[in-house]
Amino acid sequence: MLLAGAVAATACGTAPAAARDSVVIAVNPEPTTLNPVLGFAPYGASKLFDGLVALDDKLNLVPALAESLPKASEDNKTFTYTLRQGVTFSDGTPLTAEDVAFTYQSVLDPKTNTTMRTDFAAVESVRTPDPRTVVFQLKYPYATFPQYTGLGIVPAHLLRGKDINTDGFNRKPVGTGPYKLDSWQAGERMVLTANEKYWGGAPKVKKVTLAFVRDDNVRATRLATGELDAAAMPPRLVDRFRNQPGMSVRSVPSADYRGIMMPMGNPVTSDNALRRALDLVIDRDAMVKGILGGAGKPAFGPLFAESKWYEKSIEHPVDLPAAERILDEAGWVKGPDGMRRRGDTPARFTVMYNAADTVRKDIALAFSSDAKKVGVDVAVDGLSVEALQKRMDKDALVMGWGTPYDPDFITYKIFHSSFAGKGWYNPGRYHNPTVDKLLDEGRTTPDEATRVGIYKSFQKEQAADPAWLFCVQLDHVYVMADAWNGLQQQVEPHNDGLAHGPWWNVEKWVPKQ
Amino acid sequence: MSVPILLVVTLAMFALGAASPFDPAARYLGDSVGNATTEDLERIRHNIGADQPFYVQWWNWLTHAVTGDLGDSLSQHQPVLAVISERLGWTLLLVTVAFVVTMALSLVTGALAAIRHGGWFDRAVTTLAYAFEAVPVFWLSLAMIWLFSLTLRWFPAGGVSDVRTGALSFGGVLSHLVMPAVALAVSQVPWFVLYVKQSVRTAMAEDYVVGARARGLRERTVLVGHVVRGALLPFITLVGSRFPELITGAVLVETTFSWPGVAAATTEAGVALDFPLLAALTTLATAVVLLGNLLADVVYAFADPRVVTG
Questions:
Q1: CB-CB contact of A292 with A472 (8 Å)
Q2: Which terms in the GO cellular component ontology are assigned (chain A) (predicted)?
Q3: Residue A115: which of B36, B146, B162 has the nearest Cβ?
Q4: For A254-474, which CATH superfamily applies?
Q5: Does domain A22-211+483-511 fall into CATH 3.30.70.120?
Q6: Inter-chain CB proximity B158 and A218 less than 8 Å
Q7: Predicted TM-score of the model (pTM)
């Protein structure tokens, strides 16, 4: 016991004052695979692999394994990439067009257990006229296609002819990225070491340790002991770190929104007037303050407020009289108890939420009390994901989505009628012909200025016929040791974790002296 | 005897999974399920064989398992054998150490409390035993992390080796082992202490103890040679039956301390409906319990010459 204590004292003392070329990041959950084809780090941002293209801190598309952005054909159905010269995988094998073609063909193979397939549904063929050229032939014009080509490229010579779903590669991958996998002790941690031959220059932070810590409280304690350098934290646990020397709390804006999905299969929630009226009733500022503790901002549409695609005119204050007027005009009459009904139909519906998520529960409750102010009776129901999934064509649901990338990513699958009833995409079976037309145009129009106009029209149309009542846009909160320069902030998508967070560009950090 | 039990246990597990509302394909995808369309889910359900009736899935699993092929873990995307072999050693280390500590601690304190029945030591032990019996093990773990890692900085709060250097050394593992092992042991000790105390007290009133004293044997000889030995017999049987408790405790302790063992993987396999992994782990756990009972019988035979095995 005494011996163990002495050993431990040296093992977990305070953080050294010297320049730190290693970082320990807490990650939850542990990844189940490191193969991009199977869905690891779907839109790039993986430290082990590179895509043909990548996104910079402003979310602009920049070349990565391709030496420049792709050339599109006149009809936007053919995209040609030329590969960067001299790139090798971490096993020394040179990268060729074959590897790119193999990666995309694996994603498209029905035997591959991946959800990435939907993103590449437009691809008809991937050709490799020479070892440095890759040509994507699409089935239909798709101007935003290059946005999806951040997918990490895997080496064909290690995977061809193997079962990609279970091959050992998935846990011992070989890629072209700035880091290489050194070790992975399942359930404990993963260690990445710098790829000294990285085409973008060798990283200054030589070692990245990802510790798997599931419990929020344990993560907070281990940060406080100095065992961890960085971790995502729920806002309620960060206060103790605000005045701790050497640590900083970072609030990163995200495109991650929460809102109420209103299904068309319910006679109350499908009523346009009722949806518009409730949109005017939601007290978004109160939600940001009371539920998120200030870590977020009000949301009025699916595109995040910092983006160039955002249509500001959809923002509006709470307006109870206007909401009452809309409901009156639509025939929802107030009864003696103050609650409304139209004919035999009472203005009553249920909002479901994932019972494990307290933020969603609080949003459901706040929404219910806001709706009551204008005589609409909203019951709330906390359920397991499996249970609510069976009912989401008929009952409203607190949902979350949002990626900061091209607007096509988060609008088409969620609001287009062709995705009605397909899993989580358009569960309410929203169908608005104008929205369908705008989304199709947005997808196929190459000119960016025109596209901005199209998506702005889409946001106005969605606000006039809301599929969702948007509530809040979250900030993701992290606690980090102040030991490195070069951190950049990038607006984050709905799914954070290993690939996102303040450490998204760790390969560019420089240790502080 | 063991084989039919194992067959029934694994079949029941596949049946339970089929009756649960969870979709194995959704669980297979883990985090990326949010991006899945209905077609994706159907395709994957077919690819992993989850669209077949549970008894067919069980039969497929069984016919492969008897040849040594335990299949591939659905949630970890690697062979089941690899998942288990990577983690089993850590669990064995944790559980063995915790078990030895539990035994030593409960035998010594239980016997002392019984001998000094009614004294301050007895009262303190009894009170503490009841208090710790009521404390959930994950709460105990969190409290220990707060006290020994954060406040006193004696022991690291998780993992099996120093998180910064990653070096795996004997001393390093030892310092990481102390807290999870003690937490697990402390969660098991109360029950054993109270039991040991009770059976030692019963033994002290037995005729052969009174007889030994009457023959004028030294008190020490009476206590160690007669009382404790007599009290040990029923205790051994119970040790075997408490094995499942130890495994359940290990699940929580491993999760809290990021201990990379097989018990933490069991919860992951459970929530992920990872049938191949779950079946292998269930078989393993069942085998351990059966083995525990067998061992208890064998040790019993040694401790009590009246028992003849055969």
A1: yes
A2: ATP-binding cassette (ABC) transporter complex; periplasmic space
A3: B36
A4: Dipeptide-binding Protein; Domain 3 (3.10.105.10)
A5: no
A6: yes
A7: 0.80
